Amino acid sequence: MHPFQHLHRGLLWLCLSWGLGVSAQGQPVSELLPGANGLALKTWVFHPPQKTHDTPRPVVIALHGCGGIYATVGSRKGQLSARHQGMTDLLLAQGYSVVWPDSLTPRQETSLCEQSMASRQVRQSHRRSDVHTTLAWLAQQTWTDRQRVALLGWSHGGSTVLASSDSTQKLPQASVTPDVALAFYPGCTDALRRAYQPSWPVHMLLGAADDWTPAAPCVALGQQAGMSFKLYPDSHHGFDNPVGQVQHLPRVPNGQHPGLGVHAGRNPVTGPQAWQDVLDLLKQRWPDPAAR
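and the corresponding structure tokens:
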């Protein structure tokens, strides 16, 4: 088969999955991890099919945005949102295990999106702690390939990627550290102010039309810190969401234009491109994940 045909079939599968929604390829296991200050950190753990429990494989720690992990309306209410489940299934199909720490509900929160930055009780210090709690737990699992662990975060979770990888900040010693990290449309202003430097390779996926966490500070951060990034045209915050459309969210106070709300929603062209880019970036870092 011609290489282009392989690419075409792969992209067609990705677009169908992205546009129509995909069913889980593995049943999640709920784990309670002993976190900082007595917190029981709830996580959802997905394993790829046809993998024995103790077979080492690459692991992606997935970090939700300000709205949490779960769908809040519709048929998926209480389950992973369409975006989170869709990306999970794509990663499972590549042979990765996926771990979702839930940073909100153990702290009696369901969403931070309509809270001002100053009033938020769940801060990046909490989420950074959750990442290191998850890493410590992964170090104890026989199925963890310790040389192939990634962070993947969206929005507030993308900011957690930056907070967790900042070499200018004191980070906990750990026997497992991420090998690579990817951040969808993080907030970059604080990291830019701190002269952030990544502890491991970090790639940012940014929406050119994002008025919630605008791309410009992230572009400046990438140039300052020597990080890779990609700017997707005509793309708002949440452009990789596989469902819905761009909406104005007037009650979000923390956007580029305070008091005027923000816009968020899918771009049916750049969203699937970005998901394919995630798979490609991981494959570049970890060739043939199923072979080990």
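(Above: one complete record from the training split.) Residues 24-291 form a domain with the Rossmann fold fold (CATH 3.40.50.1820).
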